[in-house]
Design a protein that fits this description.
The chain has 11 helices and 13 strands. It is of the alpha/beta class. The chain folds into 2 domains: 65 residues, no CATH class; 244 residues, Response regulator (Rossmann fold, 3-Layer(aba) Sandwich), CATH 3.40.50.2300. Helix 8 runs parallel beside helix 9 and helix 9 packs parallel to helix 10. The chain is globular.
């Protein structure tokens, strides 16, 4: 039988023998145009078809059968497709994790072999060091301290002598108006002859000499002034962050900061520069538009990237993903981002995890202060906590021992 279907119809419709236009996907006879269905009545024109028909032959209206909810059907089909895509992504992530585990096992074996060799030769007198490697007034640090990994986050008591902090001086810029905490930071950095303490007021006169190392209390008057300061940005500052009102609070340590204007490509490049090879990154954000772009950049940079949309989901997957870095969006509602960072740092099993903050939309300082006040409620704070955490950054392997990037 000759078909009267016009496949090239510009309207996406096809003519039937009766002259009516129906959607191309309607089921009808190619010869006479009769609907191959009966038993259902069109809500628009009353035409009757069978339960298998989807469109009315006469008017093209979508047919509905008893108990059928086509929009709900479509929603379920879309959800199934999304789950299948997510499962495929998880399978890819799992393969990447297995490959990474093999690489880490090999690296761990090499580290143990080197440590074994160092232990065997620990009774030999140390080789002389170049004069430039350490100020003349600083005696060499004990071998046991030098070999201890600084990234474990374990509590470290002050050493008898300051650790190596690099051949250039460090400009410590402290953003905190509390005199007691200013004294605590000064006491922590005082033994290091290459570290020079300043309060944020010094920036009014320009950036002092040295590599900028900003120590920021997130409860200071305007913590965003530290993150957006042109002097610190041009100097490529490292940021050491904590949050306290003097009795409650937490210390986050060295934190990567990505403030507006946010550039996903630059963020991914910088993350790769401060993390080991084949890094694992957990991105925590509900920004539907920005998250896929940033994740794509991270994947191109060689990062195994997972995504969580809130604090609860992030805390649930950290033990299985074991990320090197958790990148947290401060635009999460109700200050979830800061609470998440505090809980990550409070769990000693996460001592290896670095924390980074990003935000793409401006946050009012007063609102941000409310977020911080909520986040610190569950944590007691002592000045010694701040001193101890700073000491870790000045010990070998800490962030204060390396020149700026």
């Amino acid at each position: 039988m000759a078909s009267v279907i016009a496949m090239g119809s510009p309207t996406g419709m096809v003519p039937h023998s009766c002259g009516e236009l129906n959607p191309a996907e309607a089921r009808f006879c190619g010869g006479c145009g009769a609907d191959m269905a009966e038993g259902k009545a069109c809500a628009a024109c009353g035409h009757v078809g069978t339960p298998g028909a989807r469109f009315c032959q006469a008017c093209g209206e979508r047919l509905r059968s008893a108990g059928a909810d086509l929009p709900a059907e479509a929603a379920v089909e879309g959800r199934v497709a999304a789950v299948e895509a997510e499962l495929a992504s998880m399978r890819d992530d799992m393969r990447s994790l297995l490959e990474l585990k093999e690489q880490l096992d090999a690296a761990l074996k090499r580290v143990r072999q080197r440590q074994g060799g160092s232990a065997a030769g620990s009774n030999r007198p140390p080789a002389p060091k170049p004069a430039a490697a350490r100020p003349a007034s600083d005696p060499a640090a004990p071998a046991s301290e030098a070999s201890a990994p600084a990234s474990t986050g374990a509590e470290v008591e002050p050493a008898d002598a300051p650790a190596q902090t690099g051949s250039r001086s460090l400009a410590i810029i402290h953003f905190d108006e509390r005199p007691d905490l200013q004294d605590a930071v000064q006491a922590a950095v005082a033994p290091y002859t290459v570290a020079h303490y300043h309060t944020e007021a010094v920036l009014a006169e320009g950036m002092p000499d040295g590599l900028p190392f900003a120590v920021v209390n997130l409860m200071s008057g305007d913590p965003f002034a530290a993150f957006t300061s042109p002097e610190l940005r041009l100097g490529d500052a490292r940021y050491f962050t904590y949050a306290t009102d003097g009795t409650r609070g937490f210390v986050l340590g060295v934190t990567e900061i990505f403030s507006p204007p946010f550039d996903a490509d630059a963020c991914a490049t910088r993350i790769l520069a401060v993390l080991p090879a084949s890094p694992r990154v957990l991105l925590v954000s509900e920004a539907v538009l920005g998250t896929p772009e940033l994740r794509a950049h991270l994947v191109r940079q060689g990062c195994t990237t997972s995504v969580a949309f809130d604090e609860r989901q992030a805390l649930g997957i950290i033990p299985s993903v074991r990320p090197n870095l958790v990148l947290i969006d401060l635009n999460l509602p109700r200050g979830e981002g800061l609470r998440l960072a505090a809980r990550i740092r409070a769990d000693h099993s996460n001592n290896h995890v670095r924390i980074a903050f990003l935000w793409q939309q401006a946050i009012e300082p007063a609102l941000f202060r409310q977020f911080v006040n909520r986040a610190i409620l569950d944590f007691q704070f002592r000045d010694e906590d701040l001193k101890r955490a700073l000491l870790q950054e000045f010990n070998p392997g800490g962030a204060a021992t390396v020149p700026s990037r």
